[in-house]
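One such shown below:

_____
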Amino acid sequence: SSMWLWWWWSWWIAALVTGSSSNSISSVSPYGLLGPQGVVLPPKDFVHRAQLDQYGAYVMLWTPREEDIIIEVQVSTRGYVGLGWSPHGGMKNADIALAWVNDDDGKVHLNDRHASGERTPAIDASQDLRLIGGYQNNTHTVIRWARPWTTCDDQQDFQLTGDTVRVIWAYDEEDPSGDGEGALPRHAHRGTRSLYLREPRPTTALLRGANVVNWDIRSPKVALPGDMHTLYWCKLYKIPDIDRKHHVIGYEPIIDVSNIQYVHHMILYECHLKDSHLHLEKFAQAKGSQCYGGNMPPSWYACNTPLIAWAVGSEGESYPSQAGFPLGEDFGGATYFMLEIHYNNPNYRKGVVDSSGLRIFHTDQLREHDAAVMTMGHSVVPAHIIPPGRKWTTVGHCTADCTEKGLPEEGVKVFSAVLHAHLLGSSIGVRQIRNGREMPQIIKDSTYDFNYQQTRVLEDQLTILPGDFLVTECTYDASRRTHPTFGGFASTEEMCLVFLAYYPRANLSECFSYPDISMLLDTFGIQKVYNNDKIIGMFQDTGFSDDYINSEWEEKLLKQMDQSVTVNATDISLSAFHTKVIVVEPKDMYNQSFYSILQNTETWQDEQLLQNLQMNIMEGPHVPTCQFHGRLEVDGLAQRTRYPNYIALKSLQQDCISPSDSIEAVQSPESEAYTTPSPTRTLSPTPGSPESPVNEVNENKDFAELNEVPKTPTPTLPPHLQNKPLEENKIDTESLAHTQRGGSQNVQMPTTMIIVYTWLFILFFY
């Protein structure tokens, strides 16, 4: 009888303990994370994770699949959560998912909404979100759902692509009342962040292997001048001592937390010149110089092949397992490198000192191929002109002659790309022409974000063959500017560049073009200028030669570097070139500078002039640049080039029901145009991930109103500067304030474990 009594007491104690907190999470369920009322949210190995706020209170996990995207949010609240997609980062035309867990019965609500402006988002007529599951504990709300890439709701949904997506988020501490029929409590937290949603799984884990070595290169406490908004600082570095070949397999930025707002981009260039030790060794310990000014040693101009191109918003990169960048001249790479850092100080802050840089990962466990980076686009020259008050497109040519001479017979495979423009940039893409036909466009971002220039990893690697003609196209939105914008180094000036990482390594390093200056002058009605031949010659890039190096002058510059950092730094404005172009004819422009004509607001009121300028920039003659490593000019190429003639490729829109059933490509040699489905990435489901919803919580029939999100979002820090990443599907309460913690401390003990411990107690004292 005593045995039965002990059995009864065991079950009774277990029942009391397990029923003490109905909202706690069981972390040991064999089916995954167990929420209130036994709702199961199975574990999932998500492909991506992003901390959307500064403090780790809002975490987004997602996995891109072929037809849809699986999303989970883990938010430090017991109230409602919102996640949306926005064209510009605000509420207007945003597509919003709104969710919460009812405190009384644990019922999960998820609804599809849209916002037409700074007002309550409306419920979509078509609900295109599929709830997979959700729960809340004492500190967090967790919701998981699926959403098709292409929905049939063209009016109220934001169609997701591989372009940059402005993600908006919000949450509050309260749930809506009842089933959400009334107004939602105004959210206490909100923000925005740009992300790539369709990228393949990152491989950063490869950077922490047993045979991987770190090489940190940092700027030498550069003091930003308080009277300059833009500073380019360059410094030389020598590789670590190695006795065998090493491959660089990835990198991470090292940004001083207090200087995030000032560091715009960093490029690490390989230096290639004869007798490099003789010319560059003495600079390896020097503090550096302002880039591209009078104090930069001429020998440094041989540093033109990028190894790393980092820009604001990027978290770094890990290269594919089949390719690595060689270190050392004896092993097919470079021994000396030049780090270029672009500092942006628009408010002219004084006392800013920076030591940011790069952490480079390299190993002697070699990959199959040596890799390299090729830069192409529009040359950074003042001939890059963007009119005010409108949208504008510029192009840069990488000619067929250049790729014919610079690439191996079998071609190269591009595995990643960095797209780079400044504040006006809205779209960047690369058009590839082969044998008179346009190839499917793999590299393009129609919603480019200056503040998010993460490397684009290509799951379907791009093959470039000798003879391919590549056109870089950049679109700008200058509708809010009242004066023209020119090509240049400052963030308020513009660039149009693409950095392509590829293998196998080839000689080609730079492939640019810019509009012919004579054509530009003619477009503005300028018939003759003073020193015409000299003006034209100032634009020509003749490459690098050892003859440019004056040892005595370089020694003088070296001593100057030892005095102080940023000594004699001056503003470098390329547009000042136009002040030297003085008009002779016609008479009504006599003695005016080209700069004054361009700055005259009446110039940009002539719509016919604007149409002609756009057409000439796109289709008129360009001056091409084709250079090998070390800025060596490729001989025997045409002096002028034009936009190529080709048979255009027409992309078909994917079916909104089943993207995989899009029409097969038709490429008929007889046709003057051929079609192909819109380029998409083929993404297989993650092994072990559910192919169908598991334990759907409800039918999404309940909705709540959401008050408008304020116009100004909360700024966030880049991920590499934030708290330690959370483990997948786990809540990290250590990142929360003490008063917010408690989720992991109130986890229930499973009934089976309670019975076992009770019986051990009985047997010990019996």
User: Anything to note?
Assistant: Residues 513 and 624 are 4 Å apart (CA to CA). The mean pLDDT is 80. Residues 2-18 form the longest helix (17 residues).
